[in-house]
Specification:
single chain, mainly beta, Pectate Lyase C-like, 19-stranded parallel β-sheet, 18-stranded parallel β-sheet
Length: 867
C-alpha cells in the first residue's frame, strides 16, 4: 500500500513538471457575467462563460445570486467584480452536486459566497496549482475538497462555516492553506494520506474537531494557527508522523487527541528570534491553554522573559513533548483612530482585532467607523476612549458597512464591548451586536440604534434626541444572543423598530439597567431559560418585554410604559418570576397567555386598559402583593385555573378591580379592591374560592354572574352601592362575610338559585340587607341582619329556606343552636330583639314571616331578651 502511494506521488510531481514546461503564453480575454438586466454583460450564467472561455481567460462576475453547478475544465480565473463574497453568491442548483467542480490545472476562484451543496462548495479532482482565495463557503457538506493527488494548490483567506468538513485533502501534497477561518463544522481541516502540506495562520474555532491528521499524512507543517474552542479536540492525530507543529495557539478543553500510537512528530522548532503567536519575542513551541483560563505547563515560570516557559510540556500528559512551550504576554492596549488626533496602531477596529491576543484591550478613539466587525479573540475588550473618561456622548460611532451582516459578530468568550455608539441600518436577522454561542461576555454602556444618523449633525453635541425609528417588519435587532450563556448586558440604550434585545436559546444571562424604546419588541426572550432581567426601562415599544416558551427567568425592578400592545407578555412560558416592577400607560401592562406556574409579586400596573391579565389556560400562577391602579380592569383572570391571588390591591378601575371570567378553581385571598365600578367580578366561573378579601367604595363590591359552585368566605364588602350582587348564579356559598353600610343592598340575589348564605353579618345597609328577586331554593341561615329593612322578596322565590334544621352548635350571636337568622335593627326593634325566648335555647319562640315564600321558623334570639 505504501509503495502504491509513493508511485502516485511521483506521478503527481511529473504532471506538475510537464505543466510548467508546456504553459502557453496566449493573451488572456476578460469575459463578464451578470444575471441582472441592469448590468449588461457577455453572459447571464457563469457556466456559459466557462464554456466560451479559452485557457488563460478571466471571467468577471457582477454582484448577484447565481444558482448553478459549475464545471471548470480549462485553466481560467473566475473572480467577483466587487471582490466581496457577501454580494456575489453562488448557490447549488442541484444540491447533490458540487457548486464548483474543477477538472483542470491552474484554476482561480476568488471573492464568492458559495453554499448549498450536499457534496462540496469547491471540489478539485486531481489537479494542481489552483488558487482558491477570499471566498465564503457555508452550508455545504464540505467547504473545499482537494481530491486524490490534488497538489500544489493555494487556499487562502477563505471563510468556511456550517459544513461537515471545512477543508478536506485526500492524498494531496504541497498544498498551502493559509489565513483561512473555519468555524462551526464537524471537522475544521481534515488531511487523509496527505503529506508535505503547509497549514499556516488559519483560525479554526467552534468546530467539533479542529484539525484531523490521519493515515499517511506525514511531513506536514502546522504553524501560526489559532485552534480554539473546538468541542471534541483541537488537533486529532491518528497514525501520522514527521509533522512539524509549532507556533500555534491551542485553547480547547482537549487540545490534542491521539487515537492510535503515532510516529514521531515535532512540537517545536529551534528557538529563533521573531514574534510568536502569543506576542513573545521568540519562535519555539506552541501556546497551550484551556477555555477556563488555565495555561500549560501549569505553574511554570519564564525567568529570562523570553516568552518561553522554562519547563517542557508533556502534551495532554502523553509522551509527546513541546520543549519550548510559549508563554502568553500580559494584556496590551491596542489603539484605533481613523480621524484627527493621536496616531494609533490601526485605523480600523477589525484590523486591531486581527492583531490582538486573548486579554488585550482595543481602545477606540472618537470617529465614525464604517465596518462589520468579527470578534473571535477571547477575553478581548473593545472600549471607546471617551467612555474611559466617563463621557457618554456617543462620539465613537460604528456604522454597519453592510446591512446584511451584524455590526459586531462575537464568537469568542469573555469579550467586552463598552461605550460605543452602534448604528445601522441592519436587516433581519442581522444585529448591532450578535453574541453567538459564547459565554462571559460583557456588553455595557453602549448606544444602539437601527438607523443612520449623519455624524456631522448634532450627535457630537451630546443630544441624541434626533434618533428616530425605521419602519418595516424586516428590521434587524439591536443586541442578539444565540445559544449564549452567562453574559452581561448592562446600561445599554437601544432603539429601533425591529427587536431591541433578543435572546434565543440562551440561558443564565443578566440584562441590567438597560433602556429600550421605540421597537416592535423591547426585550424578546425566546426559548431561553434562567435569565435575569433587572432594572431595565422599556418605553414606547409595541411589546415591552416578551417571554415566549421560556422558563426560570426573573424580571425584577423594571419600568415599562407606553406599550401599544403589552408591557410584559408571557406566552407558553412557565416558572418565571415577575417582581417589583412598574408598568403604566400600556394597552395591557402584564399579560400571560398559556403560561403557568409563574410568580408575579409586588408589581404596580396602572393607567392601562388591563393591568394584569391571565388568559388561555394560564394556570397555577401566584399573584402576590401586586397593585393595580387606575386601569379599566385591574386584574383579569380568564379561562384559567388554579391561580392564587394573595394580598393584591386593585383601586380606581373604571370597569372592575379584579375579574375572574370563565375560570375555575382559582383562589383570591386577602386582596383589597376599592373605588372601582365593580371591585371583584365573577362571570361564568365555577369552583373558585374567595376569602378574606375587602371590596369597598364601589358600585358593586362583588358581582357574581352566571357562576356556580364558588365559595365566598370571610370577605368584607362594605361601603358600596351593592355589597354582594348575584345574578343568574347557583350553588354558590357565601359564608362568614361582612356586608355593611352599602347604599342599597348588602346582598342581592337575582334569578339565582340553590345558593347557601350562612354566618354572614349584614348591617346598616340603606335599602335592604338582603334582596331576593326570583331566586328560589336558596338556603339562608345563621346570618346576622341589622338594617332598617332586613329582607325583601320580590317575584317567585319558592323553595328558599330562611333556616336550617335545629342543630346543636354555636350560632352567630353566641347561642347554642343553629337554626334561622338574627333579625335586628340599629334601633333595637327588630324581630329577634323584641320576641321572647322563654326556654333559653337561643331561638325565638315565634317564627318570623316575611311573606308566604319567606318564613324563618327558627329565628335567632337576642340573649338580652328574657320575657
Amino acid at each position: 500500500m505504501m509503495y502504491v502511494k509513493g508511485i502516485l506521488k511521483i506521478i503527481c510531481l511529473i504532471i506538475l513538471a510537464l505543466h510548467l514546461m508546456t504553459a502557453g503564453s496566449a493573451a488572456a480575454n476578460v469575459i463578464s457575467v451578470s444575471n441582472n438586466t441592469g448590468q449588461p454583460a457577455d453572459f447571464t450564467t457563469i457556466q456559459a462563460a466557462v464554456a466560451a472561455a479559452n485557457p488563460g481567460d478571466e471571467i468577471v462576475v457582477k454582484p448577484g445570486i447565481y444558482e448553478e453547478n459549475i464545471v471548470i475544465n480549462k485553466n481560467i480565473s473566475i473572480v467577483s467584480e466587487s471582490g466581496n463574497f457577501s454580494d456575489t453568491v453562488v448557490r447549488a442548483a442541484d444540491v447533490s452536486q458540487d457548486v464548483f467542480s474543477i477538472w483542470a490545472n491552474d484554476v482561480s476562484i476568488k471573492g464568492f459566497g458559495i453554499s448549498g451543496s450536499n457534496s462540496a462548495g469547491i471540489h478539485v479532482f486531481e489537479f494542481i496549482e489552483c488558487h482558491i482565495e477570499n471566498n465564503e463557503l457555508f452550508n455545504n457538506s464540505c467547504g473545499i475538497d482537494l481530491y486524490i493527488l490534488s497538489s500544489s494548490n493555494t487556499l487562502e483567506n477563505n471563510e468556511i462555516s456550517n459544513c461537515l468538513t471545512g477543508i478536506s485533502i485526500g492524498g494531496g501534497m504541497y498544498n498551502n492553506l493559509s489565513n483561512n477561518s473555519i468555524s462551526n463544522c464537524s471537522n475544521g481541516i481534515s488531511l487523509f494520506d496527505s503529506s508535505i502540506n503547509v497549514l499556516e495562520n488559519n483560525t479554526i474555532s467552534k468546530n467539533i474537531e479542529g484539525i484531523y491528521l490521519t493515515g499517511e499524512s506525514n511531513g506536514n507543517t502546522l504553524a501560526g494557527n489559532t485552534v480554539t474552542l473546538n468541542t471534541k479536540s483541537g488537533l486529532n492525530i491518528y497514525g501520522t508522523s514527521n509533522n512539524l507543529i509549532y507556533n500555534n495557539c491551542f485553547n480547547n478543553t482537549v487540545n490534542v487527541e491521539f487515537e492510535e500510537v503515532s510516529g514521531t512528530n515535532t512540537w517545536n522548532t529551534t528557538k529563533t528570534e521573531g514574534t510568536n503567536i502569543a506576542g513573545g519575542p521568540y519562535l519555539g513551541g506552541n501556546f497551550w491553554a484551556k477555555p477556563d483560563g488555565t495555561t500549560y505547563p501549569e505553574k511554570a515560570r519564564d525567568i529570562d522573559l523570553d516568552g518561553i516557559f522554562d519547563s517542557q510540556y508533556n502534551i495532554e500528559g502523553t509522551q509527546f513533548i513541546d520543549y519550548l512551550p510559549l508563554k502568553g504576554l500580559e494584556p496590551v492596549v491596542i489603539t484605533v483612530n481613523n480621524s484627527t488626533g493621536p496616531v494609533a496602531d490601526f485605523t480600523s477596529i477589525q484590523a486591531a482585532i486581527d492583531n490582538a491576543l486573548p486579554g488585550d484591550t482595543i481602545l477606540i478613539f472618537p470617529g465614525v467607523y464604517e465596518e462589520n466587525v468579527d470578534v473571535y479573540v477571547t477575553n478581548l475588550t473593545l472600549t471607546s476612549q471617551s467612555s474611559s473618561y466617563g463621557d457618554t456622548s456617543g462620539d465613537t460611532i460604528v456604522k454597519a458597512a453592510s446591512s446584511l451582516d451584524d455590526v459586531f459578530y462575537i464568537i469568542a468568550d469573555g469579550v467586552t464591548i463598552r461605550g460605543l455608539n452602534i448604528i445601522g441600518p441592519v436587516d433581519y436577522p442581522s444585529s448591532g451586536i450578535h453574541l453567538n454561542g459564547v459565554k462571559y461576555c460583557n456588553i455595557e454602556s453602549n448606544q444602539l440604534s437601527n438607523n443612520y444618523i449623519d455624524p456631522t449633525s448634532n450627535l457630537f453635541s451630546g443630544n441624541n434626541s434626533s434618533i428616530s425609528n425605521n419602519s418595516g417588519s424586516d428590521t434587524g435587532s439591536g443586541i442578539r444572543l444565540d445559544s449564549a450563556s452567562n453574559n452581561l448586558l448592562n446600561n445599554n440604550t437601544v432603539s429601533g423598530s425591529g427587536i431591541s434585545v433578543l435572546l434565543r436559546d440562551s440561558a443564565e444571562n443578566t440584562l441590567l439597567n438597560n433602556s429600550v424604546s421605540g421597537s416592535n419588541y423591547g426585550i424578546w426572550v425566546d426559548s431561553s431559560n434562567n435569565n435575569t432581567l433587572e432594572g431595565n426601562i422599556l418605553s414606547n415599544n409595541k411589546i415591552g418585554a416578551y417571554l415566549k416558551v421560556s422558563s426560570g427567568n426573573v424580571l425584577n425592578n423594571s419600568k415599562v410604559s407606553g406599550s401599544i400592545n403589552s408591557g410584559i407578555n408571557l406566552w407558553d412560558s412557565v416558572e418565571n418570576t415577575l417582581s417589583n416592577s412598574t408598568a403604566s400607560n400600556n394597552s395591557v401592562s402584564i399579560v400571560l397567555r398559556n403560561s403557568s406556574a409563574n410568580l408575579l409579586s409586588n408589581n404596580t400596573v396602572s393607567d392601562s386598559n388591563y393591568g394584569l391579565w391571565l388568559y388561555s389556560s394560564s394556570n397555577d400562577n401566584k399573584l402576590n402583593d401586586n397593585r393595580a391602579l387606575n386601569n379599566q380592569i385591574g386584574i383579569y383572570v380568564k379561562t384559567s385555573s388554579g391561580n392564587v391571588l394573595t394580598g393584591n390591591t386593585a383601586l380606581d378601575s373604571t370597569v372592575s378591580g379584579i375579574s375572574v371570567w370563565e375560570a375555575t378553581k382559582n383562589a383570591l385571598i386577602n386582596n383589597e379592591a376599592s373605588n372601582n365600578y365593580v371591585s371583584i367580578y365573577l362571570q361564568n366561573s365555577s369552583e373558585n374560592a374567595f376569602s378574606n378579601n375587602s371590596a369597598s367604595d364601589s358600585n358593586y363590591g362583588m358581582w357574581i354572574a352566571y357562576s356556580s359552585n364558588n365559595n365566598l368566605s370571610e370577605n368584607d364588602v362594605s361601603n358600596n352601592k351593592f355589597g354582594f350582587y348575584l345574578k343568574n348564579s347557583s350553588d354558590n356559598r357565601l359564608s362568614g362575610n361582612q356586608a355593611n353600610s352599602n347604599s342599597r343592598h348588602g346582598i342581592y340575589l337575582g334569578s339565582s338559585r340553590s345558593n347557601i348564605l350562612d354566618s354572614n353579618r349584614v348591617t346598616s345597609n340603606s335599602e335592604y340587607g338582603l334582596f331576593l328577586l326570583d331566586s328560589g331554593s336558596n338556603s339562608i341561615y345563621n346570618n346576622y341582619f341589622s338594617n332598617v329593612n332586613n329582607i325583601y322578596l320580590q317575584g317567585s322565590n319558592a323553595g328558599t329556606r330562611l333556616n336550617t334544621t335545629l342543630t346543636p352548635a354555636k350560632n352567630i350571636v353566641g347561642g347554642t343552636y343553629l337554626g334561622g337568622n338574627f333579625w335586628g335593627t340599629p334601633k333595637g326593634d327588630g324581630f329577634s330583639q323584641t320576641h321572647a325566648d322563654k326556654n333559653g335555647d337561643g331561638i325565638c319562640d315565634a317564627a318570623y314571616t316575611v311573606n308566604t315564600e319567606g318564613i324563618d321558623y327558627l329565628p335567632l334570639a337576642d340573649s338580652r331578651v328574657t320575657i
